[in-house]
Write a structure and sequence with these properties.
The chain has 238 residues and is of the alpha/beta class. It has 8 helices and 11 strands.
Amino acid sequence: MATAKYKRVLLKLSGDFMAGESGFGIDPVAVDEVADQVKQALAFGVEMAVVIGGGNIWRGSGALARGMDRATADYMGMVATVINVMALQDSLERMGIITRAQTAIEMRQVAEPYIRRRAIRHLEKGRLVIFGAGTGNPYFTTDTAAALRAMEINAEILLKATKVDGVYDDDPLKNSAAKRFERLSYIEALNMGLKVMDSTALSLCMDNNLPLMVFKLTPPDSLVRAILGEPIGTIVCK
């Protein structure tokens, strides 16, 4: 059996993966497909934590355009991520995976409050930890939450799952001539304005030397290949 390249990783998932083809809400089939990839990866002995976005349920940009207060919109987005956390946790536990959900905003009836040492202890015991509610603060994205949590739990790499197979110099869905990068430095990604992660998250990774892999979550063995260290996406590093 192959050996995982990384001992501990953090996986960043967009909320869009929870929605399936509809692009909105939660599709149980789509959630199960994501959970199955996580289950396959865990079989290699890797310790894994997950951060999920909430864009399939709530996107604050539209509300902001209609005059909603930014902080209110962001808090609503944090609550949306917790719904996704619960859906993924349910799917994983039906597959026999022991999980713990932690939220940056306390919701004790559905999840533990985020406590760094407790999260690390769960990982050491072989439990999958799912983080919800972002950083618990408005004006920060779930990309930033993923970078922050990855550093707090001492993850060796941040894996960002997307719907394209890496980072390009233009949108590959609109420009067939777009160039794909196999490796970038943090500074190159920031200076070129590439849509890797938001600039705050990328700067956090750079300041703390946390490698980032951007990869496509299809086909179904993609996450396994990522944790085995196969060159399936774009690596952003020092």
